[in-house]
Amino acid sequence: MTTVKVAAVQAATIPFDAAAATARTIALLEETAATGARIVVFPEAFIGGYPRGLDFGCVVGRRTPEGRGDFARYAKGAITVPGAEVDQIAEACMRLDLTVALGVIERDMGTLYCTILYFTPKGYAGKHRKLMPTGSERLVWGYGDGSTLEVVDTEWGVFGGAVCWEHYMPLLRAAFYAKGVQIWSAPTADDRPTWVSTMQHVAMEGRCFVISACQVMQRSDYPEDYDSRIEAAPADYIMHGRSVIVGPLGEILAGPLVDAEGILAADINLDDILGAKLDFDPVGHYARPDVFTLHVNERENHPVISS
Predict the structure, then answer these.
(1) Which of 45, 54, 85, 123 pairs as cysteine with 90 (C-beta 3.0–4.6 A)?
(2) 3-state SS class at 212
């Protein structure tokens, strides 16, 4: 089968509450499945939350008890992999016959990771941890390693992708192109107009379909005691969405959707990728391996190794 309906879910999550966010995710999966979509992408950090505006009480050389409390609450809202939340979402994907990329905050011992979880109609299929947290994200998220540069084989093609500003890492993009990604998942927290052009670039460069999903959050979606450094009234949007679906020649197929919840959907034909590669293949006839090569370390790294 070469034709399939894909979807990007743009919605508000429930910060700091993994159980409630998981229940919301499953409800949105059911709503999306009812549209006929079979491949679904959720935003970055949809379970766990994206801590926009928090500084966790940190400046260079100083931390505060209040900031440590903010981090403790954030960590409590994260999930473990494997874990109960993963099992619940896997069951829903099997029941609804869905292939899904879901942004979560993953807790592993004392460290949090910004992670994409992949699911298929057979259950949990793997994960990708964000390699490079951006800016102040480095304060609260650990660094992924090459062992989670994962893609998923589906009946429609190879499904995989990157998180937010990983899309500005050209070598990471090349590594995924070499894995043959045809349907590119792009969970993000970047809601600026320039993000759409980035998604168009990745689609054209990778000759792939791109599905980008971002949360849409008003100040009132966060707890009243959320200590944001972004001044906003309760009805103000502090995450605007701008989810989008793009074809392999950079054409916008759905979206962008701004300041509203919704499910973007598009029917895609994987044969369009073959036609798009007539004049460009980034890891094929346009690659020039006699001049350029990329070595990727996909080993899992551990600080302590017992023998």
Answers:
(1) 123
(2) strand
Q: Terminus-to-terminus CA distance in the chain, angstroms?
A: 47
Q: Is 39 helix (H, G, I), strand (E, B) or coil?
A: strand
Q: Which amino acid is at 296?
A: V
In sequence order, what E strands does the chain have?
A: 3-10, 39-41, 99-108, 111-120, 123-129, 151-153, 158-161, 183-188, 209-214, 216-218, 237-246, 252-258, 262-269
Asked if residues 272 and 245 have their Cβ atoms less than 8 Å apart, the reply is no
Longest dimension (CA), the chain: 59
Please give the Cα distance from 166 to 253 (Å, whole number): 23
- The DSSP code for 135 is G
Helices and strands counted in the chain (H then E): 6, 13
**Which of 215, 216, 220, 217 is CA-nearest to residue 233?**
220
Give the per-residue pLDDT at 302. 86
Please tell me the predicted confidence (pLDDT) of residue 307.
Answer: 82
Give pLDDT, residue 1: 59
pLDDT of residue 110: 93
Q: For the chain, how many residues are written?
A: 307
Active site residues: 44, 130, 164
Sheet holding 123-129, edge to edge: 123-129, 111-120, 99-108, 39-41, 3-10, 262-269
**CA–CA separation, 282 vs 137, rounded Å?**
30
Pick from 255, 172, 158: nearest CA to 214: 255
Residue ranges in the chain whose pLDDT is less than 70: 1
Question: Nearest 5°: CA angle at 13, between 11 and 14?
Answer: 155
* Tokens 């949007």 found at: 237
